[in-house]
TrEMBL record, chains A, B:
This is Lrp/AsnC family transcriptional regulator. It comes from Pseudodonghicola flavimaris. InterPro entries: ArsR-like_HTH, AsnC-type_HTH_dom, Dimeric_a/b-barrel, Tscrpt_reg_AsnC-like, Tscrpt_reg_AsnC/Lrp_C, WH-like_DNA-bd_sf, WH_DNA-bd_sf. The keyword Ribosomal protein does not apply. The keyword Transcription regulation applies. Residues 3-64 form the HTH asnC-type domain. Coiled coil: none annotated. Keywords: DNA-binding, Transcription, Transcription regulation. It holds the Pfam family HTH_AsnC-type.
Amino acid sequence: MTFDRIDLKILDILQRDATVPVARIADKVGLSQTPCWKRIQKHEEAGVIRARVALLNPDALGLSLTAFVMVEAIDHTAEWRTEFLTVTETLEPVRDIYRLAGTHDFMLRVVVPDMPAFDAFYDTLTSSIRLRSVSSVFALEQVKACTALPLSGLFPSPN
Amino acid sequence: MTFDRIDLKILDILQRDATVPVARIADKVGLSQTPCWKRIQKHEEAGVIRARVALLNPDALGLSLTAFVMVEAIDHTAEWRTEFLTVTETLEPVRDIYRLAGTHDFMLRVVVPDMPAFDAFYDTLTSSIRLRSVSSVFALEQVKACTALPLSGLFPSPN
DNA sequence: GCTGAAAATACTAATAC
DNA sequence: GTATTAGTATTTTCAGC
């Protein structure tokens, strides 16, 4: 799949604000409405646009504690990994799961209301699966939150 | 600000899929269209709904390397912090900035196309501001990605 | 690939209940 | 809160260049 400058511009607008009407996007990228709409449609079908979602304010909802939990596997079998993912994917506070390079095997981004809730999560995690080590990092504040990808550094495909 | 079950349900629907029309949301939460639309409007004005955005697929755009960079401040003055935030907020690959509790002071989520790009970012960062220590963790794969907040564990406000 | 316009849908706001 | 209405905006499709 290739992207020209116009594609990147369209995607960049939408990943910042998905409420911008197609007519205005078309105007900004120098296209008329129909071809612009068709490109967006194509990107949606191809899965380049994964979803359109509303971003909520965690503090307003009392979800002000974010923790990053780094985990070492007890062994490196396929069975352990499968079980680990099955357990963590179904745990409510786990928002993201990253498989890591280096000494730690996985990192979880965990969102909970407060420390007692984190403690409860920690108990559930450690009693659900055996781990070699767990180390948690707590965020006091999220200074910047950005779901958009850094597209401006990308070169358009030469096709 | 208080949220009843209906508010939480509405927000949960929108944070998973913001394309669902108000009529269908109203139907799902057992409200008619007008009050449902007014609640959504209220949450948008109050900033509970921060934004509506499109989520893009990083791999499709050649942005497959995510790194978490943990930083220790060289000192704990207000000046250092201000400068650090000024520098990092303007660096393209930096998507999120967390202020941490513990030995490390900040963690950055960094998204780049590949290792050379990360190397370039690292050079820019370390030459822009003095740091006591930097340690990076690299993600091989993002197994789960979820921007939605875990609302199902929340109790509705008793009002 | 593009333009322009029509049709279908959804949103927004106001009404009376 | 509901139901209905109407006007506006947007999305989507359909012709033709």
